[in-house]
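In this section we walk through a basic example: taking a raw amino acid sequence and producing a predicted 3D structure, encoded as discrete structure tokens. The instruction is simple. Fold the sequence below.
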Amino acid sequence: MTGMQAFVLGAVGLGIALSLGGPRGRRWATGYMRWSLLALAAGLTLTPFAWLFCAAFKTPSALLQHPFLPPLSAWSTDLTLANFTALFTAQPGYPPFWRYLLNSLFLSSAATVIQVVLCSAAGWALAKYRFKGRGVLLAFMLGSMAIPSMVLLAPLYSLTFHLGWLDTWWPLLIPGAVSAFGVFLFRQAALAVPDELLEAARIDGASELRIWLQVGMPLVRPMTGAFCLITFLGQWNSFLGPQVFVTRQELLTLPVALNNYMGVYSQQYGVFLAGTMLAIIPPAILFFALQREFVSGLTSGAVKG
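The resulting token sequence is shown next.
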């Protein structure tokens, strides 16, 4: 019997013993089983991150021999910072690793700001204003979400070529400046804002732009936080766009740069995993900063037609 099997059997036996102790024991058993399941789920979720952290510091031989950390007696030989040293050492003809990191950070931040401003304005207009063709525009917008992005790749590349935008960041920002998904989310959130607040603001002399910025946007803050996180993660993990439209090394983003460490004839697994560990830090920081807005934003407007 392995240690894991013994631990599981012991935990189950303890739960059964508690459940036999009367009503109070059954309450203890219920709480014990609930926390045990939560701990098990948390352990399964964190296991890949623990493996990644250990692998980033291991030598190539230790990476293949030990699933997690090597034995304590072999730490001096099997654990090293060489992967991070190689990662931040500039190779001839290639920019340093921090340049790729800054490129991804700039593109993700810029795309997030642009999409939040334009999508929130469009969603607010579709929710709070009555104009001719509003229903047709909404139907067209929702229908466009059913078109796979791969279908538009060839015409988008042709358009980018004729505009002279190849090897620039414009094709990574402009085509996705307005997201149909984002417009729909902000529209659903704006429908929950009472029209009486808008009428009161108009009576006080506020312009439509001021109503949107100072009345509407604060009230849809949960949706704004959720959409910021979704947009940032989507742009941060984007691989196909930078791979297709950008060839200059100094303009590449983090996913494309990390892919270069896994070539056909050379696989630098340790360097690749070290870069991957660093790449998950900015999205993790943003998620912990916006997790409350993310959870509440996913449910805002869910039952409003």
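Looking at the output, two observations stand out. The CA atoms of residues 107 and 159 lie 21 Å apart. The two ends are 57 Å apart (CA to CA). In the next section we compare this with other chains.
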